[in-house]
Amino acid sequence: MLAFRNLLRRRIRTLLTVTGVAIGVSIVVALSAIARGFRTQVNDLFSSGRAHLILSRKDAADPILSYLPESLLGELRARDEIAAVEPVVLGATQVPPLAVFIFFGTTRDSPFLEQIRVVEGEGLFATPGTDRVCLGARAARNLGREVGDTLPLGGRELTVVGLFESATPLIDAGALLSLGDAQELAGLEQKITSALVQLRDSNRDALVRAEQELEADYPEIEATPPSEWAAAFDEFDLAEQTATVFTILAICIGGISVMNTMLMSVFERTREIGILQAIGWSRWMVVRQVLAEALLVATVGTPLGIALGVGIVELIGSFQQFSWVAGHYDTTVFLQGIAVGFGMGVVGSIYPAWRAVGITPIEALRYE
Amino acid sequence: MSDDVVLRIEGLRKTYETGRVRALDGIDLVLRRGEFVSIVGPSGSGKSTLLHVLGALDRPDEGSVWLGGQDLVTAERLDRVRARSIGFVFQLHNLVPTLTAVENVELPLYALDVSRAERRRRAEELLVAVGLSERLHHRPSQMSGGQRQRVAIARALVNQPELVLADEPTGDLDQETGRHVLELLERLREERGLTLVLVTHDMAVAERADRTIRLIDGRIASS
């Protein structure tokens, strides 16, 4: 009761502090949701297809930099445990106005094609030929292209032969090319960026055995199930580590904001705190009072921050340049937001609480 | 300590500035239940220091202080002593401005873990007793100086203390209002059998007490 009334005493100051907490929480929620969303999308790229394993270069920091020799495919196809292997070239280029435009080079039989649904025009391989491109629905919107239009890519003019949709925004905002066109565009002659492997026997034991044997026979290769593919690349860890750094920064900066408010509140109420102690309140009760005020600020600021964070992600995703951005909101993201909000409250109230218990009733009674 | 002795002080000494200023210099004092004692003396005579020791706000350097059956020199938790046994009325009312009268009166009871319903019952009963039945839910800013001081008196009594200490309770009030506040304190003392210690500069106020203690240079000059 007293904590609530104290906060209402200085409404503007309280409002600014709540806003500070909300902004801190929103940044953490947005960063975490985007980082996790990106990882989820990468894991989803090949998850719904027939592929049991994805082969990538072991030390590659990014899927685009995972160069494997195309000749590897023949060796893999000759192995008993493997039913099929299809190559993928994953690349990125600039297509004005987009700073980053992702393309996927595949073959006619690639499990990757199971991730998309042609909604207009024809499929990439419906008619033989080169310089053909299928655009994701988002990509077509972002680039203002329709079936029959041309698209300049890497100095070549490609014809848009079809539009497709995918549940994964990263695919939906990209383009599908033949393997050869993609290799040329990415400058990867006789190279691929990953291989999708279908095993003859897909039970758990066979999968683990195949992973181990492939990695033993080809030390430069990392074999991972599609749903864990992102774990093969340091880049995604880096994104989440960045979110963690921002989390710590948000707690520190937000904590200082809360501390400032609580300190001013304690200084303003020096006499009042002394009187409360004089009438029997213990130091712990005074600490609880300061803590309660900070936690009240956090209780209001945290949900606002979470809502703001979700709004920021959705806003970013609505921009043409970032249409591949899709937040992944799982329990961890929300728990991070809550931890940051209340972390700010606790961090911000420690010093003011310490100052408050340092006030003795005698000093306070002299204080005017 | 006999049953009717509320407070016993023997050989009380208190110095400040590492012994250079003797605020209290050998005070012996006994207060009996229901007694009304005033303490007077010039500035710097030790009145406030004595009040602080009596009120368990400070510990002496030497001597003993017994309140009820409790030794205040060795008591671990003086806040518990204050919460259970002492009521304070200050010169300035010192009410929490954001709380209503009844909420202010309830404050000491939080330290005693009294239930919400009981807190409210006792606070309302006391506010009625001090004549503020119409002001229960008013904030301090909505009340006159005299009314605020009556709320402060109710707050001092709500924990049913053995000892009520009033530090210049009329010092911030006009004469008429001050007289009413004193009359209220006297009436409540008689009705409730309170032991009341009142510190004042005003001899007219001091003379209303059963006994007046005059302090000079930290010693009792007359009693």
Protein traits:
heterodimer; A: 368 residues; alpha+beta; 2 domains; ten-stranded mixed beta sheet; 12 strands; 19% strand; elongated; B: alpha/beta; Rossmann fold; six-stranded mixed beta sheet; four-stranded antiparallel beta sheet; 10 strands
Count of distinct structural domains of chain A: 2
- State the share of residues found in helices of chain A, binned by percent: 40-55%
User: What is the total tally of β strands of chain B?
Assistant: 10
Distance between the termini of chain A: 25 Å
Rg from Cα of chain A: 28 Å
Q: What structural class is derived from the secondary structure elements of chain B?
A: alpha/beta
User: pLDDT under 50 segments of chain B (min length 5)?
Assistant: none
Largest interface: A-B, 22 and 28 residues
Q: How do you describe this structure in short?
A:
The complex is a heterodimer of chains A (368) and B (223). By secondary structure, chain A is an alpha+beta fold.
Describe the structure.
The complex is a heterodimer of chains A (368) and B (223). Chain A has 368 residues and is an alpha+beta fold. Chain A has two domains: 2-41 and 236-366, no CATH class; 53-224, no CATH class. Chain A is built from twelve helices and twelve strands. Chain A has helices at residues 2-9, 11-44, 72-77, 137-143, 169-172, 179-186, 204-217, 234-268, 270-278, 283-318, 331-357, 361-366; strands at residues 53-57, 68-69, 82-95, 98-106, 117-121, 132-136, 150-153, 156-165, 175-178, 191-192, 194-199, 221-224. In chain A, strands 1, 3, 4, 5, 6, 7, 8, 9, 11 and 12 form a ten-stranded mixed sheet that branches. In chain A, strands 2-10 form a two-stranded antiparallel sheet. The longest helix of chain A is centred in the last third of the chain and has 36 residues, at 283-318. Chain A is elongated. The two termini of chain A are 25 Å apart. The mean pLDDT of chain A is 87. Chain B is 34% helix and 27% strand. Chain B has helices spanning 47-54, 78-85, 101-110, 116-129, 145-157, 175-192, 203-206; strands at 5-16, 21-32, 36-40, 62-67, 70-71, 86-89, 163-167, 195-199, 211-216, 219-222. Chain B has a six-stranded mixed sheet, with helices on both faces. In chain B, strands 2-1-4-5 form a four-stranded antiparallel sheet, covered by helices on one side. The two termini of chain B are 21 Å apart. The interface between A and B is medium-sized, with 22 and 28 residues.
